[in-house]
Amino acid sequence: MLPLRDNIPSRSFPAVNVGLIITNVLVFLYQFSLSPEAELRLVQTHGLVPVNILSLGHYLEFGIVTTLLPLVTSMFLHGGWLHLAGNMLFLWIFGDNVEDRLGHFKFLLFYLTCGVFAGLLHVITHPLSDLPTLGASGAIAGVLGTYFVLFPNSRVLTLVPIFFFITSAELPAFILLGMWFIFEFISGIAEPISGSGGVAVWAHIGGFVAGYLFAKKWLIRYRYIVVYPGRRFMDF
Q: Model-level pTM greater than 0.85?
């Protein structure tokens, strides 16, 4: 299922959300412009490599900052156009409303924190991996987790495949995002058997859980009031 838009307008211009999208696109264009050898060096240096994070020798040789910095820089690298486009679509649809509730600066801190938490969970679940992990998915999953709490009854226009046909439907956010999380969780549980397929599903899970818990703990009073003809109620 592919979301296209939600039905909640922002009260202010989502400057940070737009800035994050632009930054990701510009970084990818730079990455795309490099030679294969230079791009490989960039990915190995700024991608998240679990074994480096857990290696004492890496800290002694390169220092704490250099070793831990990929927890942040890896959020702005992507493995291809589809990877980038999918991530930015989700961020565009769901990020503006979360920024609206948090405010610009807090949203930026929240986004980066969720991304770091997601990366750490990936490191914990793949301690021996020497493969660089790239992408904003973990941070964006945190946005989805918070959106799930704040706007569960918002309607999201979604492309839905039915056998060989594709149709569109307006789905409640709690159904769309709930199904997304269930799929990620099942994929994570099955990963030791089937392999990850190149997708860091536990980073997605970690980011979503971080965003969900953050919203439940600190943002519950900001839940969106939905108004329908003849009735008014607060999401929960």
A: yes
Selection from 74, 66, 65, 60 nearest residue 129 by Cα: 74
CA distances from 207 to 57, 79, 200 (A): 28, 19, 11
Residue partners of 192: CB distance under 8 A and separation at least 6:
none
In a domain, 5, yes or no: no
Q: How many other CB atoms sit within 10 Å of the CB of residue 180?
A: 18
pLDDT in tens, 133-150: 999 999 999 999 999 999
Domain that holds residue 205: 10-234
* Better-scored residue on pLDDT, 30 or 231: 30
Greater model confidence, 136 or 191: 136
Report whether 78 contacts 28 (CB < 8 A): yes
Q: How far apart are CA 30 and CA 48, in angstroms?
A: 19
Question: What is the reported pLDDT for 222?
Answer: 54
- Number of domains making up the chain: 1
Residue 42 has pLDDT above 90, yes or no: yes
Q: Under a CB-based contact definition with an 8 Å cutoff, are residues 142 and 99 in contact? A: no
- Helix, strand, or coil (residue 35): coil
Residue 168 covered by a domain = yes
Domain membership of residue 24 (yes or no) is yes
User: Tell me, what CATH number does 132's domain have?
Assistant: 1.20.1540.10
User: What pLDDT was estimated at residue 194?
Assistant: 41
> Using CA atoms, how far apart are residues 208 and 141, in angstroms rounded to an integer?
5
Contact 40, 55 (CB under 8 A): no
Per the listing, tokens 């987790």 go with 145
Does residue 4 form part of some domain? no
